[in-house]
UniProtKB/TrEMBL annotation:
It comes from the Bacteria. SUPFAM superfamilies: EF-hand. Residues 1-22 form the signal peptide. Transmembrane segments: none annotated. This is EF-hand domain-containing protein. Keywords: Signal. The keyword Protease does not apply. Residues 30-65 form the EF-hand domain.
Length: 140
């Protein structure tokens, strides 16, 4: 599949960020606010911000969890069809390697890191959550 459009990177990253699988222990109560839920899943050091490293690690954990056959790529049933909706990509097999996916993470993160401090917090985190919600609502 051709990934010339970075819209796929945003679509994939937002889809993964919206995953229901929590990354913290089940003992933690699940927050009601979407931004707080995202922090709950990704903020490993508990500082109330999501660093690029925390974001990247969370996203790659989700990729690995979907890669059922362990071949380092998502294809076939591993590749969620919802990721193609509105992504503006060529449909030629629905396959993406872990490296291709990883390459899209920093540009996606940077779209929301307005102050370029390497952290998503406050309004940046709210913008990320709003983009994820808009993406999800635009899918059929």
């Amino acid at each position: 599949m051709s990934y010339r459009n970075t819209g796929l990177g945003l679509a994939l990253a937002l889809a993964f960020a919206g995953s229901a699988a929590a990354q913290k222990p089940a003992a933690d109560a699940k927050p009601a606010d979407p931004a707080a839920r995202l922090l709950h899943r990704m903020d490993r050091n508990g500082d109330g911000r999501i660093s690029f490293e925390e974001y990247r690690n969370a996203m790659l954990r989700r990729f690995d969890a979907r890669d059922k056959n362990g071949d380092g790529k998502l294809d076939g049933e591993e590749f969620p069809k919802s990721w193609l909706a509105g992504a503006g990509i060529e449909d030629s097999g629905h396959s993406i390697s872990r490296d291709e996916f990883s390459d899209q993470l920093e540009p996606t993160f940077n779209q929301f890191d307005a102050d370029r401090d390497g952290q998503l917090a406050g309004a940046e985190l709210e913008s990320f959550v709003a983009a994820r919600k808009a993406r999800r609502e635009s899918q059929p």
